[in-house]
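User: I'm putting together notes for a lab meeting next week and I want to include a structural view of one of the chains we've been expressing. I don't have a solved structure, so I'd like a prediction I can at least talk through. The sequence is below, exactly as it appears in our construct file.
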Amino acid sequence: MQVLMPEPQVFVERTLALIKPDVVDKEEEIEELILRSGFLIVQKRKLQLSPEQCSNFYADQYGKMFFPNLTAYMSSGPLVAMVLARHSAVSYWKELLGPSNSLRARRTHPHSLRAIYGTDDLRNALHGSLSISSAEREIRFMFPEAILEPIPTGQRAKDYLNLYVKPTLLAGLTALCKEKPADPM
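Assistant: Thanks for the context. Below is the predicted structure for the 185-residue chain, given as structure tokens.
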């Protein structure tokens, strides 16, 4: 009797990381810490948000006392947006960030990024998504061209290869065989 085992799958989670305007000059140093913590930087861009864009990004914070200061701070200069990937990316990134209040982070999580780079509750240096669903929404906001759908497997993967990859490869290899160049590269 043969036991059917499901094919192994790699589940890689993504999260959004923002290097906020007051620490953009520490970008390389922060990226090095991110990479050493086991993350892969999938996408990265430097941009400056308008106050309106900041209001839209932080829409879930609307109505809170700090909201106007938050949008003013986040639109005060350029920031770096990154899509980070690894197993359990959201929770590991939150752990690396530490508490949102940098003063509390210095007391309770002195080696966290916010303890090292943040100055107070508002200027806490970095942003991290709170959940997988907020990460997806935030990544789409900062990287509208990003594809977040799961990578196809099984029959869906075979259909994709047959429909898109094989015809292109066949045409290219056929042309290569007809030309027979001395240096095919």
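A couple of points you could mention at the meeting. Residues 152-184 form one domain. The longest strand covers residues 40-47.

User: Perfect, that's what I needed.
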